[in-house]
Amino acid sequence: xxxxxxxxxGIDNPDHRERTEEVFTWITKKFPTLxxxxxxxxxxxxxxxxxxxxFSVAKNHMAVAPEAAGISHFSDEIExxxxxxxxxxxxxxxxxxxxxxxxEKMIEFNMLDKADCSxxxxx
Length: 123
Known about the structure:
It comes from Paenibacillus psychroresistens. This protein is α+β, with helices and mostly antiparallel strands and 123 residues long. It has four helices and six strands. It is globular.
């Protein structure tokens, strides 16, 4: 979590900071092979130097970005979980619970789908 320390310290709302840290800690425990890093000033996790999932925070939500393929693949589940989304990210409102099972599925999907990917982003 050391790699995210500065990012987390920059989150002014203590509840938002705690929630964000909880998600990052969960990912590092559930997927110990993923590499946490900061890229484009945002926290993300990579696997064999390819992007798996990234995050950002805003006043009303935490954004989760599993690339367009991840959003497209899980759009029905995202909506069932009560989250809204764009083509590139889903928004978890701060007052909504985190659907860790959905996050797990998104991460596993990207890890499997990009297992042979030699680029950072999908082409």
